[in-house]
Design brief:
This protein is mainly beta and 364 residues long. 6% of the residues lie in helices and 40% in strands.
């Protein structure tokens, strides 16, 4: 039998080309991260680029293995405020085929000045599939309120969308419905929204809870799991512990007896259901890489879990940064074996003009 022997240079070139040829889409079982900024354009400018990027779930990486750039200027533009503390949560559709986030779009940003949430700019949703195809869906902001900050969106993978935000920003929208968004009157302000086990859930932190006379935590919807009517009611499913009410991201396992929340100041909290009562188990604090007197915050924003193994694996984006803003932050992983589990950094934003925001598992 003849053996084929490649020279070192040829072998390296072949491997490099093969790697490049393989990375043309999202790979299932990895992490998708919404990144704001490219390191050059200031995050406070609306036209700062945004990307959806893939990182390995186990290995520290300086660069993503796959990246999709979202157009942030022109008639097909879509953007978020990269420096905003509340924008940029990321979800995966309930059929696992799409990544989705909420924002603004359809304008020539370079011709407009002012705060995006106060300008006459359409709000909308952006979805990206496994091969990087970007689709945007815009709705008229006046159908809700001109000052809504779009924070996130959940979808079933078809034309049904459930959004979260402030100023009556929690609503249902079907792109084929001429009447536009349907606001949930009993639950106007929310931080994150997600479909888990074919049921819709939303989080409320202490700021929004005070406005709505509610408690911080994870909420479910009644009388149907995927609501579409204005008079839909909500109920508190998992209350946040007193010291951890800066809630954004959340997860609940398939058995409905273990939950996690991200707190923008404290880290990640675990809750366990005993009988009919949810009990706080413990908090994972996040070791910081920025000096305390310079650091924005020591918590987490985006959150997703992998419950497939013997121990839940937590993935999150941190809220650290300079100049009272999230930037130069990280993607971290925690294998939840116990309360002393190690926090591992998987990716580090390399500039004050880059911020990791939402995080999810990659689409299939």
């Amino acid at each position: 039998m003849k053996k084929l022997v490649l020279s070192g240079a040829v072998a390296l070139l072949s491997l490099t080309q093969a790697a490049k040829a393989q990375i043309t889409h999202f790979i299932p079982g990895h992490l998708a991260v919404l990144r704001a900024g490219d390191g050059a354009v200031p995050l406070k400018l609306k036209q700062a680029p945004i990307f959806l990027e893939q990182f390995d779930e186990n290995t520290l990486s300086a660069t993503p293995s796959y990246s999709v750039r979202i157009p942030t200027n022109g008639p097909n533009s879509f953007f978020i405020n990269g420096h905003a503390a509340t924008e940029g949560t990321l979800t995966r559709s309930s059929d696992h085929k799409l990544l989705a986030f909420a924002g603004y779009g359809g304008v020539e940003l370079l011709k407009m000045n002012g705060t995006a949430s106060r300008l006459d700019i359409q709000r909308g949703f952006c979805t990206v599939n496994s091969v990087g195809a970007v689709h945007t869906l815009l709705y008229k902001s006046e159908l809700l309120t001109a000052k809504i900050n779009p924070r996130g969106v959940a979808t079933d993978g078809t034309s049904n969308f459930w959004a979260c935000g402030n100023a009556s920003g929690t609503f249902y929208y079907n792109s084929s419905d001429p009447h536009g968004p349907v606001r949930f009157t009993s639950f106007q302000n929310s931080r994150a929204i997600k479909i888990i086990g074919n049921a819709l859930y939303a989080s409320m932190n202490t700021s929004d809870a005070n406005l709505d006379n509610e408690s911080a935590g994870i909420y479910g919807f009644l009388p149907v799991a995927l609501p579409r009517l204005a008079d839909t009611q909500t109920h508190l499913v998992v209350p946040a512990a007193p010291n951890y009410r800066k809630v954004v991201g959340f997860e609940i396992n398939t058995n409905g007896d273990v939950a996690y929340m991200s707190d923008t100041e404290a880290g990640i909290q675990k809750y366990v259901k005993s009988g009919d009562t949810w009990k706080f188990a413990y908090n994972f604090s996040i070791p910081q890489t920025i000096p305390k007197d310079l650091n924005n915050s020591a918590g987490c924003f985006g959150l997703v879990l992998d419950f497939s193994g013997p121990a839940p694996v937590i993935f999150a984006t941190t809220t650290e940064g300079y100049d009272n803003s999230v930037n130069s932050n990280r993607v971290v992983r925690i294998v939840d074996t116990n309360s002393t589990a190690v926090v591992t950094t998987l990716a580090q934003a390399g500039s004050t003009n880059i911020a990791f925001r939402g995080i999810e598992l990659t689409p299939e």
